[in-house]
Each structure stands twice: as C-alpha cells, then as structure tokens.
Amino acid sequence: MNGVINLVEPMVFGHSGRSLNVADCGVAPIMMSIEHIRRQFQGSHKTNVVIEDVNLTVRKGEFVTLVGPSGCGKTTLLLCLAGLMPLSGGRIQFRGETILSPPAGLSVVFQDYSRSLFPWKRNRDNVLFGMRRLKNLSKSEKYDIASDLLAAVGLADFANHYPWQVSGGMQQRVAIARALAARSEVLLLDEPFASLDAQTRADMHELVLDLFKKYDQTCILVTHDIEEAIYLSTRLCVLSHRPSRIELDVPVDVPLPRDPLLSKEHPRFLELRHQVLEMIKRAPENRQVPPS
Question: Do residues 89 and 37 make contact, with C-beta atoms less than 8 angstroms apart?
Fold first, then answer.
C-alpha cells in the first residue's frame, strides 16, 4: 500500500442529489487511471523529484479533490494529467488510452486565467470557443448556452466586453464558464477560485456543484483550501510533502446536496477538516528519494 490510507468507495451523484456508492449502482466506468507516475526535474547539481509513485483511479461522476502542503507539486500533477507535462516514469490513461499529449474530452481551468483567455475575443466568444467541438448544437444554441453560462457566473452585462476590460476575478469566471461550456468528460481545475472574493467564491461553489450534477461531469480539483476541498468533492486525496505521493484517499461522505452553512457544521465535515489539517501539519518536509 506504500503507506497510503485508502478508504475510498467510489461515489457519484444520483438524480435525487444524494451520493450513491458502488453498492447502490454498480461500479462506474474508469475515466482516468494514474499508475506509479513520477515527475522529476534535472538541476545543475542534483535531481529534484517532485512526484513519486502516485497512483489514482478516477471513475465517472466523481469529484476528486487534491490537497496538500504548499509546494508539494499539486499543479505539476494536474499538468501531467492534462498531458501538458511529460512524465519521468509511470503511465496515465484517459478512457483506456495512454496520455502523451492533451486529449480530446478533457478541459482545464488554469490558475493563471489571464493567459488562458484570448484577449482579442469578447467574453462570449471566449466561452463559444469552448464549444467548438460540440457538433450536435446549432450556432444559435451555442450562443444561448454561452449567454446563460455568463449570466450564471454573474457576467451577463459583460458578455460583449473583452477580457482586458474586466477585473481578474471576472476573467477567471469567464475561464470557468468556457470550461463548463465544453462539456468535456473530465474537467481539471487548478485552484480556479483562488482569485475570487469570498462571496463570489461561495456563489461559484454552488454553480459548479449544480453544473457538475446537471451535466454528469467528472472533476479533478487542486486547491490549498481544505474547507473548499471537502465541500465540493465526493472524494478527497491528501498529498505529502515532495517528493509527493498520496497519503490519504477517502470518500467525502457529507450528505448531498451540500448547503454552505449546514454542511460545514456537519460532524463528518469537521472530522475530515481536522484529519486533513493534522496530516498536512505533521507531514515531513523535503523527503528525499534517489532518482531511478
């Protein structure tokens, strides 16, 4: 088990909003399989191992969140999952195919939103760009979806603005709307709410949960915010200090649908928050392993 505490039983959303596990509906199909992956960077004097022997299986309908100490390699791991960074070892598969480059059917919301939007396209056109591969929708249907998503993230009055004409938080909301518009089978989110104010972040949490269930989305989120991780996810993975590996893999069995007040006062929510905080606090720093 390589020291991993693995208590997970796959959970998905049912039509009623409550969580379903494999005992209810059978095992959901595997969307992503991460097998013994390793990522290292070669410095002038030594090899810096960032990720070592990470293993993870993500099934359809799961919302998996990765948390861990600052600098442990969460974003590096997400870039590897997206096919944007090569592995030093191991294998990642998406729908049974090994990822060697960014695959169709997978979307990413980057932390650096200012570089992910096209500055020469208006906000609605940036969202429309996310639907370029959806062949079953007409131009007018895509236009309506883009407008609805911008309204949902509070940008109805800014649909015809350019990204450089709105604030950083508003740019991130455009990026989130574009990723959701793509209706990809797996959505990767790299701290997408970090730049938003508290109220907007809370609103975005509710929007993402609603769309996650509505579109039967599979999500993998990276965040530093432990409460955010527990509130949004059906499954939580805690990473160690680098070289990073998964120390805990556990279902978030806080009742669904989630409520921004009641859920965060639920005994299981508080128990998970305490457990994760303790793990991150006591994790040994700079654990070194020889390069292979």
Answer: yes
pTM score above 0.85 = no
**Cβ–Cβ under 8 Å, residues 35 and 55:** yes
Using CA atoms, how far apart are residues 106 and 74, in angstroms rounded to an integer?
A: 18
Which single residue is written with the structure tokens 């649909």?
159
In 10 A of CB 267, how many CB atoms?
A: 8
Phi, psi of 199 (to 5 degrees): -70, -45
For residue 265, the one-letter residue type is E
Helix pair 198-214, 168-181: axis angle to 10 deg: 0
- Select from 3.40.50.1220, 3.90.550.10, 3.40.50.300, 1.10.150.240 the CATH code of 5-105+184-282: 3.40.50.300
Helix (H, G, I), strand (E, B) or coil at 215: coil
Q: Per-residue pLDDT for the chain (292 aa), expressed as one digit of tens each? A: 455 555 555 455 443 444 444 444 468 999 999 999 999 998 888 889 999 999 999 999 999 999 999 889 999 999 999 999 999 999 999 999 999 999 888 989 887 777 789 999 999 999 999 998 888 889 999 999 999 989 988 899 999 999 999 987 788 889 888 988 887 889 999 988 887 778 878 888 888 888 788 778 899 999 999 999 999 999 999 999 989 999 999 999 999 999 999 999 999 999 999 999 999 887 565 455 444 4
Assigned token pair, 232:
């949004």
* DSSP 8-state symbol, 153: T
**DSSP tag of 241:** S
Distance separating alpha carbons of residues 82 and 221, to the nearest angstrom: 12
What whole-number distance in Å separates Cα of residue 292 and Cα of residue 217? 37
- The CA-atom distances, in angstroms, between 221 and each of 57, 163, 174, 257, 266 are 14, 24, 18, 19, 22
The C-alpha atoms of residue 251 and residue 84 are separated, in whole angstroms, by 28
Confirm if 106 and 186 have CB atoms less than 8 A apart.
yes
Q: Which residue has the tokens 């906000």?
A: 123
